[in-house]
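Field notebook, page 369. I keep forgetting to write these up properly, so this time I am using the form the group agreed on. The chain and the ligand, nicotinamide-adenine-dinucleotide, are recorded exactly as supplied. Prediction of the bound pose follows.
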Amino acid sequence: MSAASNGTERITVRGEAPYDVAIGRDIIDELVRAELPEAATRVAIIHPPTLVQQAEDLRLRVTDSGRAVIIIEVPDGERAKTTAVADYCWSVLGEAGFTRLDTIIGFGGGATTDLAGFVAATWLRGVPLIQVPTTLLAMVDAAVGGKTGINTTAGKNLVGCFYPPKAVICDLLTLESMPIADYITGMAEVIKCGFISDPIILDLVEASPAQACDPTADVVPELVSRAVQVKADVVGDDLKESVGRASIGREVLNYGHTLGHAIERVENYSWRHGSAISVGMVFAAELSHRAGLLSFDVVARHRAVLSAIGLPIAYPAGRWPELVAGIKLDKKTRADLLRFVVLHDIAAPAILEGPDSAILVAAYEAISG
Ligand SMILES: NC(=O)c1ccc[n+]([C@@H]2O[C@H](COP(=O)([O-])OP(=O)(O)OC[C@H]3O[C@@H](n4cnc5c(N)ncnc54)[C@H](O)[C@@H]3O)[C@@H](O)[C@H]2O)c1
């Protein structure tokens, strides 16, 4: 992590094509212009309808730098991640004569940056991409790591590719227009980074839960930077989520997600992602404890820190069979063997494969309210 004199943090994501994630307040203009390749004469900004005004402001700034700007408004959220919307983007790029020297900016939440990344990776077999995430989840997760994707009839995120951006710009000012409930659920991913790797994140949230819930608070740049650093370190070590590695690799980022994804599926995606993984982390901690790996103090710390910012820590009783069926559908489950990221301690993750069903049920009972 390094801080520039204006307070902007820069975190490098290692790999074949390393790139920086910049984190600061009110940095879009300066950085978008600095990061745009000299040779780009056209820039396409892909954004959702919710950000129409901010996209227009961005368009004016980029136009000032002498480039032609093409605005591509796409549907909101998941509705953008379809082949039809990708096709629409490709047709706009084609009409504009978009070349390999030109640049796409993904400006929005994780759904928009996933789509923009996929379009950039596939147009002319790859054009430069700058990701400008505008939700907390997109800043600390979706826009960092180079995974792009869309949803198809076969399932969510099953079509996509790894395509590193040239840069990621996290302007914390954009978070201030987010609905607060979405911002707080994004904080679940930040807290996850605390449990799997960086306990200072937990200390900061515990010291002032109210500040952690306020996107304008002084603690937010540090929380975001620390979470991005955790993700950057993990993906830098395992660029393409390789299977069969000796170390955990990217799978560690799945802490709390095995049950979390099952909850999302059982609830028909009506739960926010962060709420589902919040419950999933308490479950993973209980499971770790019941497998004899984790002290009960750390389990209690999960409940305390997550509930302090208003995240759920329990799930209704009696739904274990549905949840197990959901877990088995997860693309990360291998050959029907249930697999969980667990903890030996804070910042000491491991994989637990095929745990005894008695401890799974006991962990579920411990979280069912
Ligand atoms: N590529 C990856 O590695 C990765 C990792 C995690 C999640 N994801 C993907 O990310 C997506 C979820 O991301 P998300 O939670 O950001 O959802 P999202 O992109 O659907 O955004 C949530 C809502 O917030 C709105 N919004 C965005 N920025 C805003 C702002 N600054 N102010 C007000 N409203 C704003 C959006 O228009 C949308 O309505 C999913 O599609 C998921 O699959 C990808």
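OBSERVATIONS:
- Residues 238 and 249 are 5 Å apart (CA to CA).
- The chain is about 45% helix and 20% strand.
FOLLOW-UP: compare against the apo run.
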